[in-house]
Amino acid sequence: MEQTTTGKPYTTNEAAPGEPTPFPVGGQAASATASDAAAEARRHDPAAAAAAAPAVHDLLGRVTQRAHDAVDGVSNRISTTLDGLQGSASSVGDTRDEWLESAREAIRQHPFAALGGAVLVGLALRSVLSSRND
């Protein structure tokens, strides 16, 4: 199927010369990029392109600022979370050390009770493990 708009034939799967392909078919890529479209707009109406430049610049500035704000917010949240985790890990280590010291002190004060408790725990574990094997 061939059509002509300016006397030049093109198929329905192709764009007219100088126009981007609105919906590429069969693996075709669009023939014009955004920069090509902007250049084309400047050629057609340079005054409109010049008038639109401040608005585009303002829009890009706002988008960039919002992206920076979002990244800064995520960074602050991650930093706060990591600080909290490091503090928690430190306090867990301190608690473990306190418990170990407390257990050592109890064993020093009551060595026979600690030995009797260890024997009872050993017998209980032996009983539980032997009943599993049967």
Please state how the strands of the largest beta sheet are arranged side by side: 1-2
Q: Give the total of domains.
A: 2
Secondary structure: helix percent: over 70%
* Count of discrete alpha- or pi-helical segments spanning 4 or more residues: 3
Distance between the termini: 85 Å
How many β-strands, per DSSP? Answer: 2
Radius of gyration: 38 Å
Instruction: Provide the β-strand percentage band.
Output: under 5%
The outline comes out as rod-shaped
The structural class is mainly alpha
Low-pLDDT segments, ≥5 res? 1-5, 27-32
Mean pLDDT: 75
The main pleated sheet reads as: 2 strands, antiparallel
List the secondary-structure elements in sequence, H or E: EEHHH
How would you briefly describe this protein structure?
The chain has 3 helices and 2 strands, in the order ββααα. With 134 residues, the protein is mainly α.
Provide an overview of this structure.
With 134 residues, the chain is mainly alpha-helical. The chain folds into 2 domains: 44 residues, no CATH class; 71 residues. Helix content is 73%, strand content 4%. It contains 3 helices and 2 strands; from the N terminus they run ββααα. A two-stranded antiparallel ribbon has the order 1-2. β1 and β2 form a beta hairpin. α1 runs antiparallel to α2 and α2 crosses α3. The chain is rod-shaped, with a radius of gyration of 38 Å. The N and C termini lie far apart (85 Å).
